[in-house]
Design brief:
The protein has 162 residues and is mainly α. The protein is built from seven helices and three strands. A hairpin with a 7-residue loop joins strand 2 and strand 3.
Length: 162
């Protein structure tokens, strides 16, 4: 149910009665709310495919890899998630027959995740749905999509993402 006012605007108004930094608090709160909305929409789009956005990202990463496989540690680095999260994601994808766990041919301690043909087919179908829905950012146009990416890049760079 939509509120008759913007609660983030009201939070800023209340904030500024007490503290400084209302504009940055508003920006962060807006960003976090949009993140919640986008993830919920993406997960809803992916649910019919038996995926979450995190699992979809892992499959896409494997599709992008030259051999269709990567060590779990490398996946964690590229997805920027904790190793435990990668293990959980890969285990779920393996249980669904979308990836296979294989021993690393050069490092006996490492495990590779390799995408299966079924996983590749699912990525194609899921991607078509996400693209058709503008990745849940249909309220923005292409120029605004680029502006959002450019606007957030310095924050990511400052955090050490790249």
């Amino acid at each position: 149910m939509a509120l008759p006012f913007d609660p983030i605007d009201e939070a800023r108004r209340q904030w500024e009665l007490r503290w400084e930094g209302g504009t940055v608090m508003h920006a962060v709160t807006s960003l976090m709310r949009v993140q919640q909305l986008v993830i919920a929409r993406l997960d809803a789009l992916l649910k019919p495919h038996g995926l979450t956005f995190a699992r979809y990202e892992a499959l896409v990463l494997l599709v992008f890899s030259s051999r269709g496989s990567l060590p779990l540690g490398k996946m964690g680095e590229r997805l920027q998630v904790h190793p435990t999260s990668v293990t959980s994601i890969v285990n779920r994808l393996a249980a669904a027959g979308l990836v296979e766990r294989r021993p690393h041919p050069d490092d006996g301690r490492a495990v590779l995740a390799e995408i299966t043909p079924q996983g590749r087919e699912l990525v194609e179908r899921a991607t078509a749905d996400l693209v058709a829905a503008d990745f849940a950012l249909g309220a923005l146009d292409a120029e605004q999509h680029a502006a959002v990416s450019a606007l957030l890049a310095p924050v990511r760079r400052d955090a050490g993402d790249f």
